[in-house]
Amino acid sequence: GQGVDEPLSATGFRQADAAGLFLSNVKFTHVFSSDLLRAKQTAAAILEKNRFCKDLEIKYDARLRERKYGVAEGRPLADLKAMAKDAGEQCPSFTPSGGETLDEVRERARDFFEFLCQLAAELEQKEQGKPDAPGRSSGTSGEQFVFPWTNHCSEAEPSSEGGRSSMVLDANILVVSHGAYMRNWIGYFVSDLNCTLPANLTKSQLSSVSPNTGVSHFVIKLGNLAKPEITCVCLNQDSHL
């Protein structure tokens, strides 16, 4: 939850370092993180290992915090499940006293995603407005956008010749958040924005919580800001673990 702002454990730091090595050849243009300590430390560890982005500013945003669990915060998962059972409900839809509903979490995710879309659109407008300037993405080396999970993904992944994913992007944004929050965000992508999913993705995989430092990759086209096109390349990728 939100109320117990603990640092990463020793295992957590090892996982964050592994994620950093996994993503070390990906050039990010922006990094956003939850303002909770464990997410801050994960984001910092990822950038520390990066070949291109060690000095990139991490922007912290409270909209990326984990779901608020009210009276269940700081307690074992078994306690939350017991509370849900006593209330005649199932986890994760159960909302403990003082906690956020799933709809409230999804609203936070929607608000943050719309902010990201607006940010990317404004970047493109600024570049187009410069006299005699090429587009933002035209001078970018595609090799810096090669993603390490290419060989683990399905046909949903956009790729270039030779099977290497080297897309030319206006923005390549790293977002570091939390399991329950991200599950709700992905649910918003699928149910509200008709996100295209990998053909081999099962319903149980779609509804599961990501492992710590699991990586999900989405390609978003903003031809229409009100209706972005979203493709899920991979979900909860954990080969680095």
Automatic annotation (TrEMBL):
Name the Gene Ontology molecular function terms of this record.
fructose-2,6-bisphosphate 2-phosphatase activity
State the superkingdom. Answer: Eukaryota
State any GO BP term from the record.
Answer: regulation of pentose-phosphate shunt
Detail which positions bind substrate. Answer: 38, 66-69
Which UniProt keyword terms apply here? Hydrolase
Q: Which GO terms describe its cellular component?
A: cytosol
Signal peptide region: none
InterPro entries reported in the protein's UniProt record: His_Pase_superF_clade-1, His_PPase_superfam, Phosphoglycerate_Mutase
Instruction: Spell out the SUPFAM superfamilies in the cross-references.
Output: Phosphoglycerate mutase-like (SSF53254)
**Cited PANTHER family:** FRUCTOSE-2,6-BISPHOSPHATASE TIGAR
Q: What is this protein called?
A: TIGAR bisphosphatase
Gene that encodes the chain? Tigar
